[in-house]
Amino acid sequence: MANLSDLEDFLKSDLGKGLAIGAGVVGAAALALPVLAHAARPLLRSALKTGVLVAEIGREAIAEAQENFEDIVAEVRSELAAARHAESVAAKAADVVSPDGLA
Q1: Considering the domain boundaries, does residue 100 fall inside one?
Q2: Distances 58 to 33, 50, 55, 68, 71 between C-alpha atoms, Å
Q3: Measured between alpha carbons, how far is 55 from 42 in angstroms, rounded to an integer?
Q4: Is residue 65 part of a domain?
Q5: Contact (Cβ atoms closer than 8 angstroms) between residue 11 and residue 17
Q6: Helix (H, G, I), strand (E, B), or coil: what is residue 4?
Q7: Which residues have CB under 8 Å from 10's CB, separation 6+?
């Protein structure tokens, strides 16, 4: 059976010191983790709230950019249609003035 001096010798050794420190850390963590988790909850909620707000702002910015792009595409298509119509009218006018191709 081990006696008190053997335990003292073990605790004075590096292995004993490491095990004692480890046991102390585990014990302290077991007591501190619930308190820390409770304290961290508001921080986590705040971080998530900020993330949601940033995501909403990003969605709004993307939607606005998409709308602007679609407006530009519609303007370009309208300009192309107007140009085609003008060419068609000019070609018909040229046929009316000179149906046989003579001026």
Answers
A1: no
A2: 36, 12, 5, 15, 20
A3: 20
A4: yes
A5: yes
A6: helix
A7: 16
Total number of domains in the chain: 1
Q: Which pLDDT tens digit goes with each residue over 19-68?
A: 888 888 888 888 887 887 888 888 889 999 999 999 999 999 999 999 99
CA distances from 21 to 6, 26, 90 (A): 18, 9, 94
Structural domain contains residue 17:
no
Whole-number Å distance between alpha carbons of 11 and 7: 6
Retrieve residue 10's tokens. 């073990």
0.90 surpassed by pTM: no
For 34-45, the pLDDT digits (tens) are 887 888 888 889
| 102 found inside a domain | no
Q: Are 7 and 16 in contact (CB under 8 A)?
A: no
Task: Provide the residue range defining the domain that includes 72.
Answer: 25-94
